[in-house]
Every structure is written in structure tokens, then in C-alpha cells.
Amino acid sequence: MRQNPSFTMTDVAEMRRILDENPWMTLVSATPDGLVASHYAVLLDEDRDDLTVVGHVGKPDDGIHGLGERELLVIAQGPHGYISPGWYAPGPNVPTWNYVAVHLSGVPEILSPEENLRVLDRLVARFESALPQPRLMWQAPNDEEYVRRLERGTVGFRLTPTTVTAKRKLSQNRPEETVDEIIRQLDAGSPYADPRLSGEMRRAHDAMRAARLRSAPGEQA
Length: 221
Hints:
eight-stranded antiparallel beta sheet; alpha+beta; elongated
């Protein structure tokens, strides 16, 4: 992912938030047979406060990726959407696409069966907990034999990234009045309305405005 200083994301807390809020991720490996991509739910490692993530792949995806033997790229895609030039001030303009993305790469560690079970249990709990009657992994009619058989069909991994590239392209290079109009259109006024994307824009631009106020001449510490 090509970087641009205006759009670079470096705040670890913000990157963790994007990873946590967008757990459906893309896993990419460069193999002797070419590039391979898979799609799985991935979570932050609850025992770490960095960008380490945990997840699993189904067999035989582990062999196809060479999991644990070669570099793995994990891509988290945050809110994204079309931005019309009609939302800008009058003048020559072209459309663009605003987005937030975090790329993590490194050689993953393969989890033991017990560690993998804990990750699988946590994955199920994460998404079932929003339902009025959650069906947790160890809950009947699932029994231990059934759950362990499922675990044997997967390979768990932990990735502590050696390379991180994070980007939020959210019209930071546009005047404030243009940003406000884009947010208004994304909130409700457009066929491309997306409150998640407008929320990311507010967050990014509020941070920029706060930084400008802190650096303004005469500002007291």
C-alpha cells in the first residue's frame, strides 16, 4: 500500500481500534505457485497491547499458505466509500474513494491445539454475544468430542507483525468546508450514505483540528 504523509496512520491505539472493529480480514501469501489469498475472521491478541493478532485457517489452507514458514500479509479494511466531485466547491475535480486500511506482515507462529481452541472459543463468543440467545462453542448440543474434532480441522496462528502499514485517506487534503459537506452527504444526503465512513472522517478531522489548536502561537501548555 503506497503511503502519503497526509494519510499515514501511526497511532497504535487507532490501529488497534480499526483491527478490532473490522475483524473480517484478508490473508495473503507469496508462494512458489503464485499469490494466495484467503478470508478469515482475525482478532487482536487479548494478552498483548500491541498489534499482535490471532486467528485460524481451515485445513488445507495452512499448507497452501505455508503458514508458519513464510511471510503472511494480513489486511484489515475499515469503512470506505465513493466521494463525488459534486460535493466539492465549484471547479475542476474528479471523484475519489475514501478508506481506512491496516496491513500487518510477518511470519506467524503456529498455535498449539489448546491455544487454538481458546482462540476459536473467543471468536465464537465475540460474534454470538450480540445475539439474544448466544450459541457458544462449548454449549450443548456441542460436546467436547465434537469441538475437538472441529479444532483438528483448523490451524491457529499468532502474528506479531514485523512490518505495519496503516492509512486513512479521509479528505485530509481538502478544505474544512468541503470535509463538512462530504460528511453531510455520507450521513444521509447521498445514495452512498455511510455513517461509519462519516464517523471515521469526523474522528480524523477532529484530531487534526485539535492538533492545530495545540500548535497555534500563544497556546498554553
